[in-house]
Amino acid sequence: MRYTAEAMLTQLGYTINDSVMSQMKRIIQNTKGFNEIQKHIIQLNDALKPFQAYIAMSNSNDYLKIKNESDEQSLKEVDKMINDWAKKYKIDIKKVDGKETYYIIGFKS
């Protein structure tokens, strides 16, 4: 299943406006193999919600980011979930130094 930029934004909980649409289009262009991984992004976002973790647009880079704001007990579990997801679907992620945040770089070819 392929999502439009608008559908992705809705799935991630954003209100649609010109600014977020424009940013999402840049993220799609900047993320290698976005069309191949988008359904996996939505699935991960749904799996993360119970742990106060989520996928959002980065404010500083044209990438989606995975933000882990779970409690101390769940941090390692969520971190493992994110890394297992990336390995399973061959998705390149980059951890932000000193934060519980990852950028979704794209599909590993």
Characterization of this structure:
This protein has 109 residues and is α+β, with helices and mostly antiparallel strands. It has a single domain, classed as Alpha-Beta Plaits (2-Layer Sandwich). The protein has helices spanning 5-11, 18-30, 34-48, 72-88, and strands at residues 53-57, 64-68, 91-95, 101-107. It has a four-stranded antiparallel β-sheet with strand order 1-2-4-3. Strand 1 and strand 2 form a beta hairpin. Helix 1 packs across helix 2 (18-30). The protein starts with a helix and ends with a strand. The relative contact order is 0.17.
How do the strands of the widest beta sheet line up side by side? 1-2-4-3
Number of domain units = 1
Count of DSSP H/I helices: 4
| Poorly predicted ranges | none
Derived from helix and strand composition plus strand pairing, the structural class reads alpha+beta
Q: Work out the number of β strands.
A: 4
Distance between the termini: 20 Å
Strand percent estimate: 15-25%
Share of helical residues: 40-55%
What oligomeric assembly is this protein in?
Answer: single chain
CATH topology, by name, is Alpha-Beta Plaits
Which CATH C-level class is it?
Alpha Beta
Mean pLDDT: 94
Q: Sketch the topology as an H/E string, one letter per element.
A: HHHEEHEE
CATH architecture: 2-Layer Sandwich
What form results from the Cα inertia axes?
A: globular
**Largest sheet: number of strands, sense, barrel closure:** 4 strands, antiparallel
